[in-house]
């Protein structure tokens, strides 16, 4: 072979390697400021460089079925995917092509990303809501951006007029009590559903006869003046991470106060050695009269003991994890209860609204549904997680819930509502019953580790042992975008 031909072959190889090199640079550094990760479940997984296998396999694997030619069938909630990106971006757009087979027990499909790995919190966005897409389709609707107002009878010409009236005097626009249901709306700027004039000021406060494990949120009422909260922290040292704790006090949307308790305890993490109790006190003066929200943020290694607050009105929002070796009684305003035990010692038969629910396995989610809310819950011992879409309290007199009805899996019936307000973009209808939805996220504050984000798909109520629906997923595409390489260089050099 002539040397000239050898030179051409070498040049061809060098050129090919150079093209591959620059292609990898473009793909993995994304100098153009964007990156797209796509997975079409109706096709076989392609190479990593095609941008498809950057979406990891669905987990847990037993919650999905993938036949030849797809699509992916989601059979139980929730479902997780890891999503690779070559670098961090400021925004993310998720596009999902799906076909829902839902019922009144599984009406909501949401998706999002892990935002806080310590507390395992996800930032979710609505994908599909059966009530909004089907049940209220015949009602007159007004739109403002993504806000949609459904009215049984058309009384308002636009969303702004409704909000102005509702936040002023809404006594004469409803036929039913709690006639407004919300979805994906922050109601903290809305007037509470409660008549605060009926509360008055009860003498005394609330002392919890049990401990609380992990993160909790409360509503409480003050007639004004001072707030005094005391208690203690106990660290179980079962996890590997440091166990800091934080307190946040809100009045409506306004953050009134915060306090951080760093983990300065001497016990070694994962040693299983209990710490000494660490006392704390929160005192705030000259507070307005009204309903406040208190949030304790901590991982499940921490237990809150001896909690006392100078308010006779105190309710746990959506979730409570009481720690007690003795029997205890609670009341909830919701007709639904979800129960899970993580410790074999917590297995028991509980009573909810007069019906028995046998909790016989750990890590399994149990559910019960009563006729109406305002039901009692009787536990033979604590150490069990209780959740619902309402609140929990020690007694009916202490219970308060300023929240509005929600269009979730336990939404009120259509006949009980006059208005529905939702921040919701309807799904785009494609061929053969397929739907497409797009969700936007500010990805700068999402959790990313080893080049991957954690994506969740959630259909509450979807379970393997119940034939109440499934979700077909044809395609998931995640498009990340942000500053390009030149913009980043300018930022680095402050140009």
Structure description:
It is a single chain. By secondary structure, the protein is mainly beta. It has a domain of 28 residues. 10% of the residues lie in helices and 42% in strands. The protein has 4 helices and 34 strands. Strands 13, 15, 16, 18, 20, 22, 23, 24, 25, 26, 27 and 28 form a 12-stranded antiparallel sheet that branches. A hairpin with a 2-residue loop joins strand 15 and strand 16. The radius of gyration is 26 Å and the shape is globular.
Q: How do the helices and strands line up, and which of them pair or pack?
A:
Blueprint: H1 3-29, E1 34-40, E2 64-66, E3 72-74, E4 79-84, E5 91-101, E6 108-116, E7 121-129, H2 130-135, E8 141-144, E9 147-151, H3 159-166, E10 180-183, E11 206-207, E12 211-213, E13 216-222, E14 225-235, E15 245-251, E16 254-261, E17 278-287, E18 290-297, E19 302-309, E20 314-320, E21 322-323, E22 328-332, E23 336-340, E24 348-352, E25 355-359, E26 366-369, E27 375-379, E28 385-393, E29 419-423, E30 428-429, E31 435-442, E32 448-449, E33 452-458, E34 470-481, H4 485-492
Described by its quaternary structure, the protein is single chain
The fraction of residues in strands falls at 35-45%
Distance between the termini: 55 Å
Stretches with pLDDT under 50, minimum 5 residues: 45-52
What helical percentage do the residues reach? Answer: under 10%
Total helices: the number is 4
Average pLDDT for all residues: 84
The strand count comes to 34
Largest sheet: 12 strands, antiparallel
Radius of gyration: 26 Å
Shape: globular
């Amino acid at each position: 072979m002539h040397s000239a031909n050898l030179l051409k072959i070498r040049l061809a190889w060098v050129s090919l390697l150079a093209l591959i090199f620059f292609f990898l640079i473009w793909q993995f550094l994304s100098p153009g400021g964007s990156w797209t990760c796509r997975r079409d479940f109706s096709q076989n997984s392609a190479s990593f460089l095609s941008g498809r296998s950057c979406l990891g396999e669905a987990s847990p694997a037993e919650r999905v079925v993938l036949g030849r030619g797809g699509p992916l069938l989601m059979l139980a909630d929730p479902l997780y995917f890891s999503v690779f990106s070559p670098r961090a971006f400021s925004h993310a757009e998720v596009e999902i092509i799906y076909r829902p087979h839902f019922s009144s027990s599984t009406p909501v499909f949401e998706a999002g990303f892990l935002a806080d790995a310590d507390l395992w919190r996800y930032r979710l966005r609505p994908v599909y809501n059966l009530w909004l897409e089907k049940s209220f389709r015949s009602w007159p609707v007004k739109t403002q951006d993504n806000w949609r107002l459904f009215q049984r009878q058309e009384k308002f010409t636009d969303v702004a007029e409704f909000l102005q009236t509702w936040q002023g005097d809404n006594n004469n626009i409803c036929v039913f009590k709690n006639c407004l249901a919300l979805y994906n709306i922050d109601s903290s700027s809305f007037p509470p559903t409660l008549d605060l004039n009926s509360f008055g000021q009860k003498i005394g406060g609330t002392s919890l006869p049990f401990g609380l494990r992990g993160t909790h949120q409360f509503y409480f009422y003050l007639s004004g003046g001072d707030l005094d909260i005391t208690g203690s922290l106990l660290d179980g040292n079962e996890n590997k991470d440091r166990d800091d704790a934080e307190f946040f006090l809100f009045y409506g949307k306004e953050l009134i106060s915060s306090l951080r308790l760093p983990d300065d305890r001497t016990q070694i993490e994962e040693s299983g050695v209990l710490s000494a109790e660490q006392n704390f006190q929160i005192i705030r003066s000259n507070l307005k009269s009204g309903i406040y929200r208190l949030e304790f943020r901590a991982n499940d290694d921490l237990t809150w003991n001896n909690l006392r607050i100078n308010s006779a009105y105190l309710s746990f929002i959506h979730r409570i994890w009481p720690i007690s070796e003795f029997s205890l009684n609670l009341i909830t305003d919701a007709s639904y209860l979800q129960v899970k035990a993580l410790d074999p010692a917590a297995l028991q038969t509980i009573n909810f609204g007069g019906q028995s629910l046998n909790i016989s396995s750990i890590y399994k989610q149990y559910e019960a549904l009563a006729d109406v809310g305002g039901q009692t819950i009787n536990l033979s011992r604590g150490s069990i997680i209780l959740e619902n879409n309402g609140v929990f309290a020690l007694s009916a007199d202490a219970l308060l819930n300023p929240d509005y009805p929600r269009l979730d899996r336990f939404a009120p019936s259509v006949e009980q509502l006059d208005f529905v307000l939702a921040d919701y973009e309807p799904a785009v209808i494609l061929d053969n019953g397929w739907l497409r939805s797009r969700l936007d996220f500010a990805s700068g504050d999402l959790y990313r580790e080893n080049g991957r984000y954690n994506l969740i798909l959630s259909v509450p109520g979807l379970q393997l042992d119940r034939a109440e629906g499934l979700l077909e997923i044809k395609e998931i595409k995640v498009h990340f975008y942000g500053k390009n390489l030149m913009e980043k260089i300018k930022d680095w050099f402050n140009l």
